[in-house]
Amino acid sequence: MTKPTPTIRHQIAVGFALVLVMALMTIFAVVEWKVKPDLITQRHEKITISQHGLLDLLNAKLGQVELLTSTMALTGTILPKDASLFRTTFPPILNNYGDPAIAGGGIWPEPEAFKKGVERRSFFWGRSGKTMAYYDDYNQPEGNGYHNKSWYLAGKDASVGRCNWSNAYIDPYTKAPMITCTVPMHQDQEFVGVAPWI
């Protein structure tokens, strides 16, 4: 029995099939070895640009916090030692137009630095909606005080006018994670307290 010879129609169909397979293989190769790497490179570039943008925004925000905290520390050393003056001057600075990223802060003098004979005389405000609420907890004689807290001690070692950032911690009252920018207060070259910003 002899093999039937392929017809022209059959040869054309096989030829088209081969051309189609070759075209598909070429498209696959181009996608895998050219298009896909280019897309991955473009995606990495966009991610890098986004990361740099976020870092720039974060650095700007941290710089703003450092400037405002430094301003509070300086103001705390030049204002007359009047509790009512402190309680009216600092809340608007701390609030920073209702900035929700700011949880609180204040002025924390060394023992007897605000008033002779008074060991604890802190001025602390915490976020309460769009305003700042004053808290007197750290001044209570039955409490632990504030002079041995890590954020306070961090200010003793910081350079004048420079922020010393705390490690992250959980706030005992709000249970929220926080970090603190602490700027030392100096008067006549002497350490007189800190201005932390939370």
Report on the structure:
It is a single chain. The chain has 198 residues and is of the alpha+beta class. It has a single domain (52-197), classed as 2-Layer Sandwich (Beta-Lactamase). The protein has helices at 8-78, 83-95, 150-157, and strands at residues 104-109, 123-128, 131-135, 164-165, 169-170, 177-178, 181-187, 190-197. The strands form 2 sheets. The protein has a 6-stranded antiparallel sheet, sandwiched between helices. A hairpin with a 6-residue loop joins strand 5 and strand 6. Helix 1 (8-78) packs antiparallel against helix 2 (83-95).
Explain the layout of strands and helices:
Layout lengths: L7 H71 L4 H13 L8 E6 L13 E6 L2 E5 L14 H8 L6 E2 L3 E2 L6 E2 L2 E7 L2 E8 L1
Antiparallel strand pairs: 1-2, 1-8, 2-3, 4-7, 5-6, 7-8
Helix pairs in contact: 1-2
Summarize, please:
With 198 residues, this protein is an alpha+beta fold.
> Low-confidence stretches at least 5 residues in length (pLDDT < 50)?
none
For the record, give the distance between the C-alpha atoms at the N and C termini, rounded to a whole number: 95 Å
**Level of helix content?**
40-55%
Query: What is the β-strand count?
Result: 8
| Gyration radius over CA | 33 Å
What's the CATH topology name? Beta-Lactamase
Order of helices and strands: HHEEEHEEEEE
Average pLDDT for all residues: 87
Largest pleated sheet: 6 strands, antiparallel
Strand residue content? 15-25%
